[in-house]
Design goal:
Strands 2, 3, 6, 7, 8 and 9 form a 6-stranded antiparallel beta sheet that branches. The protein folds into 2 domains: 32 residues; 162 residues, Sandwich (Immunoglobulin-like), CATH 2.60.40. It has 197 residues and is of the alpha+beta class. The chain has 4 helices and 11 strands, in the order H-H-E-E-E-E-E-E-H-H-E-E-E-E-E.
Length: 197
């Protein structure tokens, strides 16, 4: 029964020309995943740890948002010299408790669009700085003056129910990249909630 329902759902979505069967399954899992709240209707938490495995300091915006709620503003946190939250090379951040949402993003374009469109003017002025960029920018440390850029990494979006679940721990790793055009990449690992207790 479960297999035939999934096959029917994939056929319907693919026949409509919207997305592939794998994409339809990911969308279904994301939109039906629990937001982890107790009692029901509340939002639970997941944890985020960022490990910088490069000798450079990054600037980026990370946050959570619900793509189907076109009027909500993402809940975000920024790193970089302009926001006085630094993550020096070869270090790790504190562990952050983050409210569950359908998408967790590190420098994702859609999250930045939501921020630009849905934050009020005063709130947007606070986040509109050198960390409000698509992807992650890396800077070489300097004693004085402006730090030269060492390069960029593409942003990364993780979907609730597909890439992580509420109450798990998401470990974001900033790494050198030996493939592609950009010298850095954003990787992730997930530790399920059963092993974090």
């Amino acid at each position: 029964m479960k297999f035939s329902y999934r096959l029917w759902m994939c056929f319907t979505v693919v026949a409509a020309g919207a997305v592939s069967c794998d994409d339809a399954t990911a969308i279904w899992r994301n939109q039906t995943a629990s937001l982890g709240g107790v009692p029901a209707g509340q939002r639970g938490l997941f944890q985020v740890l960022i490990i910088n495995n490069t000798p450079f300091s990054p600037a980026f915006t990370m946050g959570v948002y619900d793509p189907t709620d076109r009027n909500s503003a993402p809940s975000t946190l920024q790193f970089g010299p302009e926001v006085n939250r630094l993550l020096p090379g070869d270090t790790a951040s504190d562990i952050f408790d983050v409210a569950c949402a359908r998408t967790f993003s590190v420098g994702g374009a859609e999250m930045l669009q939501f921020m630009r469109r849905n934050l009020d003017e005063e709130a947007f002025e606070v986040v509109d700085n050198g960390s409000f960029i698509e992807g992650v920018e890396f800077f070489a440390p300097q004693e004085e003056g402006e730090s030269p850029t060492a390069g960029f990494a593409d942003g990364r979006d993780l979907l609730l129910g597909v890439d992580f679940v509420c109450s798990s721990m998401v470990i974001i790793r900033l790494e050198f990249s030996d493939v592609g055009e950009k010298p850095f990449r954003v990787e992730y690992d997930v530790i399920p909630s059963e092993t974090t207790r």
